[in-house]
Design brief:
Oligomer: single chain
Radius of gyration: 21 Å
Strand order of the largest sheet: 3-2-1-4-5-6
Order of helices and strands: HEHEHEHEHEHEHEHEHEHEHEEHH
Strand content: 15-25%
Number of strands: 12
Largest sheet: 6 strands, parallel
């Protein structure tokens, strides 16, 4: 580990101790009428959060609700259309700029701060301890990204730590647990509903599918060669258009797939050409979505659009496959293609930070690499493709 990284982590740990100790003394002098919700995780996490956001709004009807995001993520592009919140802002939670973010938070005041993330990050906790608040609320964590000592200090800074079940649970279940802990005792986990985002459906063509061959983390990106083979299969069995999607950093992989597949003008890349709001509008008009485990899969579920995801075992149990308390919603669950029955399944929920089969997390995970093209095609046949189309 580089000396600069060691110094940075040491400084972050010291700040966690300092702000955790002072958190319960950092109170506003009067009521602020403001609530802060921290969502410094990804787009998919935010979409799943929408399953309870309406109820959060009802709990604080007379307060302004603000959300804080990670500036690296495009989530605010969607949050600006969110009718249940009043404002949002982004902060840096990586590089040296994260220390500037801490002092920016020192100037903010709230009645209540809610940290709803099951796998808490030390830096996010520091940010929330830095702001003044009458009450700070979080959910019990699995401590995946915290050492035992960091977890001890982190818990010390919160006024209320809501109970969470320890076994594997989907994030929708976690959201429901949070809401019941806040007082909505009869709430049952359900799918998110994108009606709270004031984004109208738009269509790219009369009939089309959208493919997402990349992801925010290389570890869960299925190989581009396999995507090319699946798309080749689709081109010969599906009469509509196919759009490759992603942000600007995904342009290279999408262009590679375009070049490899003989698509006769029916395959087009939109990578880096549209923002999250337009992407969501187009997902609403699609026949189905296929790709890696990305925010788009969760957007599709929230729009009740069929979706198929190639999933790493780290995500199994927490993000996919879906779990809700309403059996009627199962027809809208995204379909998952993964290496079932692996002993290491759900490793992230077990507290394993690094894959036990490789030295770092900078390469595609073995559980992703071993997923065959035939598995995905069988899922497409079973759930999406019909002979009369």
């Amino acid at each position: 580990m580089e000396i600069r990284t060691r110094i940075s982590l040491f400084a972050e740990r010291c700040l966690l101790i300092v702000f955790a100790l002072s958190a319960k003394k950092r109170r506003p002098q009067k009521k602020t009428g403001k609530i802060l919700v921290a969502r410094t995780d990804g787009v998919g996490d935010y979409i799943l959060w929408l399953s309870v956001e309406k109820q959060i709004r009802n709990l604080y009807p007379d307060s302004q609700i603000e959300m804080v995001f990670d500036e690296r993520k495009p989530t605010p592009e969607l949050a600006q259309y969110d009718t249940y919140i009043d404002s949002c802002f982004s902060l840096s939670i990586v590089t040296w700029k994260r220390f500037v973010s801490i002092f920016a938070m020192c100037r903010k005041e709230y009645d209540v701060i809610i940290q709803p993330v099951y796998s808490r990050l030390a830096l996010t906790d520091i940010l929330l301890f830095a702001a003044k608040a009458h009450k700070r609320i979080t959910i019990d964590t699995n401590g995946q990204y915290l050492t035992k000592q960091e977890l001890k200090w982190s818990n010390r800074g919160y006024d209320v730590i809501l109970k969470a079940s320890k076994e594997r649970k989907h994030e929708l279940i976690r959201c429901a647990e949070l809401l019941r802990g806040l007082g909505v005792k009869d709430f049952r986990a359900c799918l998110p509903d994108l009606n709270c985002l004031n984004i109208e459906k738009k269509k790219l063509a009369d009939d089309y599918i959208m493919v997402f061959p990349s992801a925010s983390w290389i570890g869960k990106v299925w190989e581009k060669e396999k995507y090319a083979k699946v798309i080749h299969w689709l081109i010969h069995r599906y009469s509509g258009k196919i759009y490759l999607c992603g942000d600007s950093k995904d342009q290279e992989i999408c262009h590679w797939i375009e070049e490899k597949v003989n698509h006769q003008g029916r395959l087009k890349s939109l990578a880096g050409k549209i923002d999250m709001a337009k992407l969501t509008a187009y997902i609403k008009g699609a026949r189905f979505i296929f790709g890696n485990d990305t925010g788009a899969i969760h957007i599709a579920a929230a729009c009740r659009i069929p979706a198929i995801a190639v999933v790493a075992e780290r995500e199994i149990g927490r993000f996919l496959p879906y779990q809700t308390d309403d059996a009627d919603e199962q027809k809208y669950y995204p379909a998952c293609v993964h290496c079932a029955d692996l002993k290491c399944g759900g490793c992230a929920l077990k507290g394993e930070r690094i894959c036990r089969y490789q030295k770092d997390m900078l390469h595609v995970l073995p559980c992703i690499r071993t997923i065959h093209v035939s598995q995905v095609i069988e899922e497409l046949k079973a759930r999406i493709y019909t002979d009369n189309h």
